[in-house]
Amino acid sequence: MDKLRYIRIPFLILILLTSTTLLYDSGRTAHAGYFTDMYNNIKEFTELPSEINEIKNSYQQTLQELDRARLSTEMYQKQNADLAEQNQQLTKMVEQLQAAEAARERRAERIKTIVITGVALLAGYFVLTRALRYGMSRTNRL
């Protein structure tokens, strides 16, 4: 048993050294990952101001575009109101021109009727006077 004890002790020492080495190495690997993560976090933290500046610039640019769009919309609304007013004026003018055209047509029709009536009256007068003369000359001959 004594022999077994001598074999057991070095074997236990070997297991102990192996386990401590493995634990020590795995701790170093975790340690290296910790420093890498910390370095990456610090690097990202130092890059944040530039990203924030980019976001601010993008925000300012978007605000400027929004202002331009708002001004453009206001300009189009004003132009639309002006065009609506101009359209109303043109509609009134067209109505006035249509009324004037209708009045002119009525006046022309009235003049036409007066002329035709006058010509018919004159023709009737001449025909009637000729018929009367003919009738009178016929009664005078008999």
Please sum up the structure shown.
This protein is mostly helical.
Topology:
Blueprint: H1 2-141
* Uncertain stretches of 5 or more adjacent residues: none
Q: Give me the count of strands.
A: 0
Radius of gyration (Å): 59 Å
Mean pLDDT reading = 83
Please identify the structural class as seen in this structure. Answer: mainly alpha
Describe the structure.
- There is one protein chain.
- The termini are far apart.
- 99% of the residues lie in helices and 0% in strands.
- It has one helix spanning 2-141.
- The protein is an all-alpha fold and 142 residues long.
- The chain is rod-shaped.
How would you describe this structure in keywords?
mainly alpha, 1 helix, rod-shaped
